Task: structure prediction
Amino acid sequence: MRILFTSTAGAGHLGPLLPFATALRSAGHEILVAAPISAQARVERAGLPFMSHADPPASELGPLWARVRAAGAEQANELVVGEVFAGVRARAALPGVELAIDAWRPDVVVRESCEFAGAVAAEARGIPHARVGIGLAATEALALGWAAAGVDELRRWAGLAPDAGRERLAAAPYLTLTPPSLEAGPAPWPALRYHAAPAPLRLVRSSTTAPLVYVSFGSVAPTMGFFPGLYGAVVDALADLPIRMLLTVGEAADPAELGPLPGNVRVERWVPQAEVFTEAEAMVGHGGFGTTHGALLAAVPQLVLPLFADQPYNAQRVAELGAGLTADWQDAAAVRAAVVRLLEEPSFRVAAGGVALEAQTLPPIAAAAEALEALVAGARERRAA
Result:
């Protein structure tokens, strides 16, 4: 089976797709990742074959991001999904995704759920497609509504009829690594749930070294005006605790802008997050789904300081599960007190461990091949009928 994976450039979008691509390649299937040129380093770091297409020009993205920064939370989400992902990014991606399909001739297209050119190009060519969830299913359902107008414009470009009711997008098989208990209520469509290679779970603290607190706000926050202020505020709130702190700032930020740092603080642009989770005793993050999900599946309790997009929803869910706490990043006392609680109260790690153990009862990720093979077989039968 030949599988074309399509993604936008962000780590939170590409990240959930990569375990599927890696597992299916290891199972003997041919895979190719088509994504913007700005995603090349991330894909190559994963060791996967890559075909690039254009990023949208800064002259189009810049004004949109300015509107996002000036908008309220709900309006900002609608702008990002409707005008960035289903708008300028999808329009820039469509010719390259079409070229990848025509040149490589995949049996199926698998896209991350905010990459819409793959869905449209596949349908226009009679190729089945599936989607990989990048957040809670309830949030994904909202995103379909926000994306509807942009996707219909893209469909017109590709010679397809409108999908005003979003039936075509919603009907695509939905693959996810999210265990049921993490969802905020029943999924709005059938979900095919899997688990990747389980991380070693550490349900008790080490007594030989100062606990490691991992601090990460993803790759987008530095481009949204949160660097270095947010990062410095968290360092100041926590640095005098008896901890080791690992702070990642992303490729777009210069660690030197943080100035002199305490000796117990290490700063990196990027680290292999799965490896960090095997050692971290707690995490401080922004509620980006990839990082939040990764910490839960490694049984790492977390403090979520939500900034934008789906992060408030994810923060609320972590708190409801008892796997962490949430706070305002500008309240230094609350940030410090929350991290102390995460380190001292075992209930948070136990709750996170419950989510991790539930995830490990799901089918292994390589089993997604069965769903994709059935999808391909069904499409062939319909074409033959």
User: Anything to note?
Assistant: The chain has two domains: 2-196+363-384, 212-359. The longest strand covers residues 30-36. The chain has a mean pLDDT of 92. The first helix runs from residue 11 to 26.
